[in-house]
Specification:
With 210 residues, the protein is an all-alpha fold. It has two domains: 1-56, Arc Repressor Mutant, subunit A, CATH 1.10.10.60; 66-206, Tetracycline Repressor, domain 2. It is built from ten helices and no strands. It is globular, with a radius of gyration of 20 Å.
């Protein structure tokens, strides 16, 4: 009877897979899943198509691997919201972490947006389970803060959605943001400016008056 345990990958195999995934991220974020090909990814990775297919079975295999990693990275800041922490501090930190992701992971953001726009055919099961369970958990935390009078009463789900939408805008529409801000305000400082504004927008609307 054959063993079902998969052999461990060597260091070189792991490195090759990472090279392929990095190249695929660049290709998918530019062309989307449908517009990308194995040949494009192989060329970007600097290897032949047969060599690439030794490490990944198909374009779908590469794409699914990227999306699985991406979803975990994307929801990590939400996991860090601490129910025992100060609500204003926790929400401000969450906004900051999401803005940092918009700044540091624009390709990953575009990859995720492309998948969602196509109806999330490859990650819908993860959205229905992992993401939903986490959002439900954090929504309960936010509701508790509201019942305690630490935040004004509001819909915690739409609060989370609004933070997603406003922060991810600076990744997905960065070209537009830089064009409108112009050369004087369109540099790296735009992310700090945006973070301060979003803190003011959300915190100002959530802190009870008086």
């Amino acid at each position: 009877m054959e063993s079902s345990v998969k052999p461990r990958r060597t260091r070189i195999q792991r490195e090759k897979r990472e090279i392929i995934l990095e190249a695929a991220l660049e290709v998918f974020s530019m062309h989307g899943f449908r517009g990308s090909t194995i040949d494009q990814i192989a060329e970007a990775a600097g290897m032949s198509k047969p060599n690439l297919l030794y490490y990944f079975r198909s374009k779908e295999d590469i794409h699914n691997t990227l999306l699985s990693r991406l979803l975990e990275t994307w929801i990590a800041p939400l996991r860090e919201i601490d129910a025992e922490g100060d609500p204003v501090t926790e929400i401000r930190s969450y906004i900051r972490r999401k803005m940092e992701m918009a700044r540091d992971f624009p390709r990953e953001s575009r990859l995720f947006a492309n998948e969602i726009l196509q109806g999330a055919p490859r990650i819908l099961p993860m959205l229905d389970t992992d993401l939903k369970n986490l959002v439900d958990e954090k929504a309960k935390v936010i509701r508790l803060w509201m019942r305690q009078g630490k935040l004004v009463n509001a819909d915690p789900y739409h609060l989370i959605f609004s933070i997603w939408a406003t922060t991810q805008h600076y990744a997905d529409f960065d070209v537009q943001v830089r064009a409108v801000l112009g050369p004087d305000r369109g540099g790296e400082g735009r992310f700090e400016d945006a973070a301060r504004f979003l803190e003011q927008l959300f915190i100002g609307g959530l802190v009870p008056r008086g």
